[in-house]
Amino acid sequence: MVRALSHRNYRLFFAGQGTSLIGTWITRVATSWLVYRLTGSPALLGTVGFAGQIPTFLLAPFAGVWVDRWSRYRVLVVTQVLSMLQSFALAWLALAGTIDVAHILLLSAFQGVVNAFDTPARQAFVVEMVDDRADLPNAIALNSSMVNGARLIGPSVAGVLIAVAGEGWCFLLDGISYVAVIASLLMMRLGPSAARARGQRVMAELREGFRYAFGFAPIRSLLLLLTLVSLMGMPYTVLMPVIADRVLHGGPHTLGFLMGATGIGALSGAVYLASRRTVLGLGRVISAASVVFGCGLIAFSLSRTLLLSLVLMVVTGIGFMVQLAASNTVIQTIVREEMRGRVMAFYTMAFMGTAPFGSLMAGGLAARIGAPRTILLGGCACIAGGIVFRRQLPRLRELVRPIYVERGILPEIASGLSEAAALEVGAER
Q: In this structure, how many other beta carbons lie within 10 angstroms of the beta carbon of residue 201?
């Protein structure tokens, strides 16, 4: 389950990034609560979410081209330093008592610009940290475990820290946590990387990447499902302060518990994926996870007690993380190396880039029909997307199988054996 940690560079990254991500989740919870405390407006929660994520939607495709050209390692060092400075700026304003929604909007937008470069670079850099490609799926699953371990710890710490000391100390702690990931990057031993500069213009390479990603049905289907889930399902996170306050009649500690429960579920899902020995059969897992995520959201929207809501957040976390991480694993496994940065940029757009529109839509809908009904509608959309994807699987398997055979993931099977049977044999192994 932890075989990717045998690679020194990945082990350093796992330790440093894991520490930093705890701070990131503390800041996410603190930011949401601060906006809600200052304004009491669900719509403004959605607006802040939009401001923090729309730069990723606009810039990620171009960032993907540059990630394929530049050193991914250097991109990560720069983005982590910039993220640290952003957290310190939030801390300074909050501790000075001068912060307002305009400051939060501007600094959230700045972080969105940083994330547009950081996320595809980080996803593509995993390949360079893991020498044995057979360990790549495990590394991706461990990444998800790291994110969700932080999601479990961070919101819980944030709920207590907000109640005791205020949001400013949360931002300060986040800024300090970036020292760990920056130090881990500087300690890595990397061989010379091949030059990625090309003679084509940026727009030409962007069109090339778009034609590849959306012209190949397996990648296109995964990106479209992830887009739907991000657009319709994920905005429940920006409505959490409303649920904690108006539905469950709690405070910042309630918000921390709810986010922590989501983290427990997501961590459980990531551990499940890390325990798998093969990528075969992940198509069915992705479809089922989308349906589980949608069902969890629907049930959560109907819950009026904290205990039941916490249980449902665990279910929701499992569904979303398995769908997200399994999609990442399949894409990273089948993508052509020269297209990796651009395809992971489209993955970033699907996951993070469409979320601002979902946040804005959810904030507006919640102001009109209430947060619970808004979350319920998102759950229904996720279930529909999972069912449609499941119906496409037979055709997608036919396209993926030659890639798996070429890369040694699926052994050559006698020609008389059907594709479905071949995949079942691989899954049993």
A: 10
